[in-house]
Amino acid sequence: MSHTSLSVAVIGAGMAGTTHANAWRQVGTVYDLGLPKIRLAAIADAYEPFAKDAAERYGYEKAVTDWRDIADDPSIDIVSIVVGNALHREIAEALIRAGKHVLCEKPLADTLESARAMAEAERAAGTVTAVGFTYRRNAAIAEIAKLVREGHLGEINHFEGRYWCDYGVDPNTPMAWRYSGPMGSGALGDVGSHLIDTAELICGPLVSVSGGAMMTSIKQRPVAKGHVTRGTALDTYAVELAEVTNDDVATFTGHFASGAVGTFSCSRVAWNMPNAMMLDVLGTKGRASWDLARCGEIKLDDVNSPAGLGGARQVLVNPTFPYFARGSSMAFGGVGLTQIEQFTYQAYAFLQQVAGVTEGALPPCATFADGYREMLIADAVATSAANGGAAVDLTPFNR
Amino acid sequence: MSHTSLSVAVIGAGMAGTTHANAWRQVGTVYDLGLPKIRLAAIADAYEPFAKDAAERYGYEKAVTDWRDIADDPSIDIVSIVVGNALHREIAEALIRAGKHVLCEKPLADTLESARAMAEAERAAGTVTAVGFTYRRNAAIAEIAKLVREGHLGEINHFEGRYWCDYGVDPNTPMAWRYSGPMGSGALGDVGSHLIDTAELICGPLVSVSGGAMMTSIKQRPVAKGHVTRGTALDTYAVELAEVTNDDVATFTGHFASGAVGTFSCSRVAWNMPNAMMLDVLGTKGRASWDLARCGEIKLDDVNSPAGLGGARQVLVNPTFPYFARGSSMAFGGVGLTQIEQFTYQAYAFLQQVAGVTEGALPPCATFADGYREMLIADAVATSAANGGAAVDLTPFNR
Amino acid sequence: MSHTSLSVAVIGAGMAGTTHANAWRQVGTVYDLGLPKIRLAAIADAYEPFAKDAAERYGYEKAVTDWRDIADDPSIDIVSIVVGNALHREIAEALIRAGKHVLCEKPLADTLESARAMAEAERAAGTVTAVGFTYRRNAAIAEIAKLVREGHLGEINHFEGRYWCDYGVDPNTPMAWRYSGPMGSGALGDVGSHLIDTAELICGPLVSVSGGAMMTSIKQRPVAKGHVTRGTALDTYAVELAEVTNDDVATFTGHFASGAVGTFSCSRVAWNMPNAMMLDVLGTKGRASWDLARCGEIKLDDVNSPAGLGGARQVLVNPTFPYFARGSSMAFGGVGLTQIEQFTYQAYAFLQQVAGVTEGALPPCATFADGYREMLIADAVATSAANGGAAVDLTPFNR
Amino acid sequence: MSHTSLSVAVIGAGMAGTTHANAWRQVGTVYDLGLPKIRLAAIADAYEPFAKDAAERYGYEKAVTDWRDIADDPSIDIVSIVVGNALHREIAEALIRAGKHVLCEKPLADTLESARAMAEAERAAGTVTAVGFTYRRNAAIAEIAKLVREGHLGEINHFEGRYWCDYGVDPNTPMAWRYSGPMGSGALGDVGSHLIDTAELICGPLVSVSGGAMMTSIKQRPVAKGHVTRGTALDTYAVELAEVTNDDVATFTGHFASGAVGTFSCSRVAWNMPNAMMLDVLGTKGRASWDLARCGEIKLDDVNSPAGLGGARQVLVNPTFPYFARGSSMAFGGVGLTQIEQFTYQAYAFLQQVAGVTEGALPPCATFADGYREMLIADAVATSAANGGAAVDLTPFNR
């Protein structure tokens, strides 16, 4: 593997896959890399039209339909895995064996067993392995984490996280793999996983969860004919209905090692809220709030105001923030940020790790171990829910 | 007791007491009563300057320092009890024995035992008894409850309630009775009680709670010298510190009989949030949100929009709403509403009950039984918290 | 006239009249008066049911149908005039002659000639005379004015004021006196008058206006049968239509003596915005914004933030603010304020003037001279509009 | 010129130049082009390090320091001009003579004379020429324009546009070409130009302006040494100060041919508002508002709500909207949009014009004639300001 350039491939060319493809392509436009040149080598998708279309749009050299062609290509250094969770383990293990650096989408796997195996494979690997908790790369969230770390908000007493989506609110949205796993693999596994990782990033480790509650609001969905992707309008549905077996809504309580308490809720059936993530972090000297709908700002309240004139400030993401896109075009406050850019910043941190940059480097990506831990916590929530909300101790998982 | 007029007294002349005093005085200005005339008879407060000042400001005929003078006055029909929780039972029982109609502030009592006794006294009483859950009289909340009842939002799958205050965030705020009860009598008992009552008003009965978590952020407070009221600046503090024994922050999960799940959190140490109550109600056909900071509006999202142009509407409280102040001055949208007005609307509903108005009457006030039930639920949350978040069944409390 | 108590009467018992009636009644509940006792003496309205209803609701001793009965009553000290603009002059002059203190609603009169005469009558009067620019008593606006005065925002370079209402947006809202005056007496005269007074309160005197533009959106309205008040639903309309002759929308540019420029707009046909007043004040060291929909808060941005963490703060009205209701029930931030309370604070300032309180007194009310000046400015805007937007010099009006 | 592929070059590699460079590169990732392939040919900048850096980051084949090399290169089809206004004319004329398609940044030129000449050159050109009014490509603004065109908001009676920036608020920001033109070339020429074009896009042509007012808040600025770009921190300033000769703040009134009135204001000294553009469009059947800080949403109010439950809706940009990025990754509501994306959508519309696509094509770009018109209107505002706000007739400019 040559390090005068780094060759990148993406496995999976759906919505999130193309977002990875875009990130590898765009990373050099927003950062002064000081890094080997990026070569966009290949995109794989079992559905060939997707693979070809993505490769052409994003300027990758070739499109393949079998991910093994990527694992077998000795010229490829870095691979994003962006396919169904059930395929993560097999692909990741093969890629690691082939000596690739691997960035795997979250959640890490479809089962705890697979996730554990991946974390083990990581320990044995000689390459960089990471899981795609992209909110770690949101400039506002990273700033909140930094403020908490530096004591700017005092001792945190309460964290509240909500991640509410609506992709499942229409009962005519057809059955898909995401509606058929066990409790905990629905809303919690999909969007709650981001909340859990973000909560620990900001407030440190959780030591127990309780009050797990999950409900399935839409209990049956039509079985679709043919190839379906999220967001695609369907022409035809089968008459057949299938049972939804996992959670549309989940909520739980968390206890942090610091003594803070956490309130968590997530939903995939929140009416007309396409993608609403909201965080509140409250401490003895201030508070910070963030809303994905206003991705480029923090509401920050602290002691830095004249007497009688304090209040939550609308702080716009700016060049003093971590992950502010220093080299990008129009890099000033008020232009806006989007969720998509988080993937680009993630790509940059990953590349720094691969290239061994340490001086002034961004914090490294979440590891497979982090991804496994997040799944253990989600599983603990599901266990709590299955036991009427009983507490589940997380300390065995803490390193 | 004559019903050509109704004589009213208020016991307690602190902040909330004067709010009651004001409500009885103002009710006739905002409603077409169709009711007996209101006579403002007396205000009682153990601290005489408070009693006298309130009586003079709000136009009550006399000020007394002993509440028994009110119980003993045969000309008085209606009495508000607005004193420390520990005094509610004794006063309420005496007033009921004296044949008074009683409106008691929340929470109903300081102990479950007292609350139960008051609910029993209520069953035996020949008069109207009620507990002051004033948010039932908030026009926006009442409208949300009506929308849910009428199915406008479909089946509710998720309720989220937050009530965050900051009255305890300053560690120099001195020790007071509200910081010294058992776990569950702090933030949960004070502001969480409103969330619980409001949640059941909107979503129907809870059947279990779990994930109870409580934390004390400020563990010691200075003991104040002399007479102190909430919001009063202190000149002098004792050197002595006392232990805070109840909850600054509380969070829990609730299960509604309907199948919906509830996420609840409350705080009295939320930095610089003097009085923030926020509700989200999510269903299969819409959602409604409300924020006390914008007391006169609902964010409402439903199916009533042209294709592609839907979204949460900023619905201003208007004359079609329950509790809209029909007879008031400047009674049009956009002028604003405040929490204070809820007390006036509560007074009106209570007066209708006393006068036996049924046709077109507002929903009746919460009863002592409701207040007892709310305390049982709060106690169940405290039990859950004491057991690491274990579930507590509420069905024994359901009627 | 005895000053051991002050007797008050209100002429006009419509929506705004009852708001005055309420203010005189409530002023003692929110302030420590240190003043003579208020006696609620009389309410007058030509339409007897209104007068009687208001007197009963607000506790005034008598209701009369002829305002002259009030002018002639030697026991009355203070009178609010809250009737159609065309009646202001005659009533005010009579009251002044009778030695009354007079608080007249805005705009001061229906014609410049009448307003000038009233300002002259004021100079000759031995009593207190004032015009009801209630936004001077809004705690947030008063604070912004104070911040500007103290240089907190640096030199102001731009003021933007918008007052958008919707009371005229429905073409079926019937013809009324407010739709039939000359250009300048519509939206500009009604709500624009508040903007003009508030702008000068905050930024100092205007020296010219230009860019006056007025448009009539709804050109004809049905003539109603019978007694109609704003907000009243009509059962029947005449077939007849009448021409609307004044402005539904008005906008103009102002130049302040300070060098700042002002952008002003007002509307009575702003779709579904019942009562939206919004101000932005921008200077070289900060900015402040206010929105009537969030009556109790200021958005304030200045230099008091840590580097990189600045932004507009949501400052809640609090006890350090002018006109904060110190003696009121529930007087802490976050409870909310409404437009109605401005009338109460206005009543307090007026009473202080009548009683001759100077130490620690609130700023005095706007005078008839101020009211005349505001009308001269509005007239200058109308002149500008009639001349295609040509500039009109205001310096002849400056004292 | 071959149309089996289209070769693109960008002249100017500053902040806006790289945004163009990015747009040409990314256009194929968000749209199904149905177009010739894009070849990224060259980037020119007089400052060679900028040119080289941009070419490398954005994948352009070569970097040049003289724009004439691009004009002279017969393989180049399309050229973006993104340099100082004073250079636009010479470059555009040369490019047109060389048979290039030209997309020129706004404002079209530094003088009316040059702009007029460019509009003439356009009429003679056989290629596509356009000016970069990118807000025409904002999905929310385009939707508002469509709603107005279709009568969804009734007859528009009022348009209010504000564009407030802060890039000039710091008096230490050094002198630059943008601070040294005549009145009208400052805030008005820079950001006001967007307001004017957007206003006419939504409401149709203006027929007159009046009330022009301009003020210079920061009257002198330090002269910087060496190469300076907007946003760059300076190490050293000269002792010398230079006079600022144009407008920091501008405001004016506009009359639309439709009868609607317009209120306009713009600023480059709006404290801590990096880039705030806000629009309100009010009509007889609804209103729409937009704020660049929430680039991906419209506040829309209309008749489509149940009785009593109407209000402004928060409509998220979605696939039914013009310019919704249909082919992009993560193309669902709630992910966010930024100003940067408008450049990509502009590139797409321009490419459709070049390729002669008509069926289902997006509205074409603004022409040089449109850019000249916008400058005539801005000049009319400056003329109005120079004459104390006198009206200036625009009908001679209307086609």
From TrEMBL, chains A, B, C, D:
Pfam families: GFO_IDH_MocA, GFO_IDH_MocA_C3. Keywords: Oxidoreductase. Residues 7-133 form the Gfo/Idh/MocA-like oxidoreductase N-terminal domain. Residues 142-288 form the GFO/IDH/MocA-like oxidoreductase domain. GO terms for molecular function: nucleotide binding; oxidoreductase activity. Gene3D superfamilies: Dihydrodipicolinate Reductase, domain 2, NAD(P)-binding Rossmann-like Domain. SUPFAM superfamilies: Glyceraldehyde-3-phosphate dehydrogenase-like, C-terminal domain, NAD(P)-binding Rossmann-fold domains. This is Predicted dehydrogenase.
